Amino acid sequence: MEKIRADSFILVYRDRRRKWLVRPSETPKLHTHLGILDCASLVGKDFGVRVNTTMNDELMILKPTLEDIVMKFSRKTQVIYPKDIGMIIIKCGIHSGSRVFEAGTGSGAATAALAYSVAPEGHVYSYDINEEFQAGAKKNLERFGLSEHVTLKTKDAKLGVDERELDAALLDMGDPWELVKPVKEAMAPSAMLAGICPTMNQAERLVQTLHDEGFVATETLELIARNIEARPGMTRPSMFMVAHTAYLIFGRKMG
Amino acid sequence: MEKIRADSFILVYRDRRRKWLVRPSETPKLHTHLGILDCASLVGKDFGVRVNTTMNDELMILKPTLEDIVMKFSRKTQVIYPKDIGMIIIKCGIHSGSRVFEAGTGSGAATAALAYSVAPEGHVYSYDINEEFQAGAKKNLERFGLSEHVTLKTKDAKLGVDERELDAALLDMGDPWELVKPVKEAMAPSAMLAGICPTMNQAERLVQTLHDEGFVATETLELIARNIEARPGMTRPSMFMVAHTAYLIFGRKMG
Amino acid sequence: MEKIRADSFILVYRDRRRKWLVRPSETPKLHTHLGILDCASLVGKDFGVRVNTTMNDELMILKPTLEDIVMKFSRKTQVIYPKDIGMIIIKCGIHSGSRVFEAGTGSGAATAALAYSVAPEGHVYSYDINEEFQAGAKKNLERFGLSEHVTLKTKDAKLGVDERELDAALLDMGDPWELVKPVKEAMAPSAMLAGICPTMNQAERLVQTLHDEGFVATETLELIARNIEARPGMTRPSMFMVAHTAYLIFGRKMG
Amino acid sequence: MEKIRADSFILVYRDRRRKWLVRPSETPKLHTHLGILDCASLVGKDFGVRVNTTMNDELMILKPTLEDIVMKFSRKTQVIYPKDIGMIIIKCGIHSGSRVFEAGTGSGAATAALAYSVAPEGHVYSYDINEEFQAGAKKNLERFGLSEHVTLKTKDAKLGVDERELDAALLDMGDPWELVKPVKEAMAPSAMLAGICPTMNQAERLVQTLHDEGFVATETLELIARNIEARPGMTRPSMFMVAHTAYLIFGRKMG
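^ inputs. structure came back:
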């Protein structure tokens, strides 16, 4: 059974809004408004335990999931939501061994999810012209042990993509239509291109460009995640929700 | 570059409704209402080519994705939709190396998606009391080369689960609350349990049972996939859609 | 208590898909695949009775609602859905006494709903350049006793609207932005304009034109009607649904 | 053209979040964080004008719609949303002359919308056992000139409804199933009953009771209102929204 180590990431969980992602080595004492948690004392214990703060408030010690990690990435850039990256991974058939292209890297959140999915045998090539973003993404990927599966390039993919015969491509840019041509060159025949577009206008233009470049089986969809409050005799959808993240566009390259 | 072999699966694609998943070795000539396609002649060619039928109708030759394969599994049982299995894979953090429990196997569609995600290093343990379903699933998994990553058991998981320290568990049964206790025993501390429930009443009862059994961070949600018709100057959501598949329930085991 | 007359409209109802809107005077015998119903014999009876066909199948005799009537209007043109017209009526504050402009008339379905809402003291002015549509709408409105509350004009509203000081305006055209200027002239200060646009592009352009013409408090929304199958212990959203009808755009005229 | 009077309600509008519903006679000076508005000076002017505050900030003077009024009713109780009341009015065929039952009155928001729709010839009978709610509703209805179309009864409808041959009935209670029997007695044959239920469980139980009491053509649905940000070249659904208000249940009484 996996024990907590000093350098393990642990998710200290109270409820959906109060949770902390820490490492005992970095945060021996976690100060919260619910009291102080002695993280150092967790080393050698199992995940899944309940512990008390100095104020005698109970917290749960969980092993962070991919979602817990990815949602903590810097939010200076657009976030990728689990629903969206899950759909992309399934529709592109991304799995261990896949070689995947990404533009742009942003905070590295989607990069991390892709890296996690292609490991240990595959690889992610992620381009971004923004040096600051790439530095942040590099740090995040290293911190969570995912950097060996990723090559980050501070480079404008519009000017060309170095790789060839890639299994899938993810475009998360404001003007993804500008990248279709160079990215197509880098993709294996029949491979899937996925685009993430917040606006209808972007989706429309990306699909049009995909058609112009001979892509087939194009599809545009939107995933709406609706939270449900499941309580005995009082079950109902939550009153508020994230109503829109982005449209997902898919298309397959012809040879 | 990967070439089509006699035993390769190929997706013969015309549009979203007219597509065929075949192997040249099994279907040397594919008879469609658009004419006959000489599949045998495709051997040695690349994926991503356009070919003509005897009636001179153009078809696209694609390499099938996980979705193309899974959606072709026998539909005697409830289908798993890409949006749902993608979300489950992300939220449970399933990736190469994960050891995952599933009940019930059904057509094996979700089993295949899980196997695909845990390969090459992980494993799926899938229980179903229905012998006929398991035989069908076995055939499907073998046919698509995924059976080495799966152990199928014709067994009632309510009576106990043989495995221990599993990384995730997926319950796709009519009465998933009956399985929470035995499945909990089989899960590693902090691991995620996911349930798929078509009705609100099932979701409500499963969540209640999870709470009773000490699971934390429970969450119930529904993913609504909305297709968009992205056409220049005429972009709009599709008029009809699959409005509901199932509620997804998540919860994490405490030690 | 209201009795069925020979010229009453009656809704013969079996289930959501099998229902007939008839008049005993026009259809003394209603032939259905469930047998023949003697409608003439219903005269003098109450609504809300159960009757048998010649094949001994039970049918319900209901008094048609506005929805039953409007949904039976000719469907050569775009249908207005109850959810959409209900929202428009509330947001525009249409009620007895309101004077309302409409372009275009189409089948007259929305016209009928507006007429029903403004009666007995208000009036609807409905323009359409298509003579055939207007003839059909006229027939429908007369048939259901609503024509006295409507003035139909076979006229292009782009060239000017004759009325002044109207309380609300409904634009149900392919190019509603072309009408904003002339319709604005016809509206009372502070009155609400409502547009019905199937595509995002139309909605975008209409809103832009409203802003250009000084309209304020603009709002664009979409109503999604989700049917629920409410059954003891098995409640869930319906599997299929009408996923999109139109965007609704609102804006208020400034003086 | 209608002029602003001292006792007119005016909507002082800046944007969707900053708006005030006032009367010059009651609020000669409106103090806002954008400065002071001299409402008294508006008397005799038209609606639809732009005015400046003492801080030289521009505000719009609009004639309030039904929605503007209803959304300002006290919010101690559940609010009725325009989408929901609009659908109810259409599906029940409520219009001038309709005689409508309502339980419970709550803040009187739905009562006001119903009164507005049945005026001048119809009437609303609204029951509530809560004296405080009824007093508040009475005040609101009087304030907005709608009280002559409404009879409020501080009474438990479960114990019986005094009226007969009503055209429609609206149940907005926590336990609407308890009222089906007495309300049925008060309805005309073939009339529509509408229920508003926040939870799935309530909807399920109400539909079951309607069936038990012989109601036909039952329907359960949910209206989801999705706001769209329509901006040139950047059109997209709003990021956040009210995800759920209530399920709407309909059924028609048989004789």
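Chain A touches chain C at residues 200-201, 204 (CB under 8 Å). The first strand of chain A starts at residue 10 and ends at 13.
thumbs up if we can close this ticket
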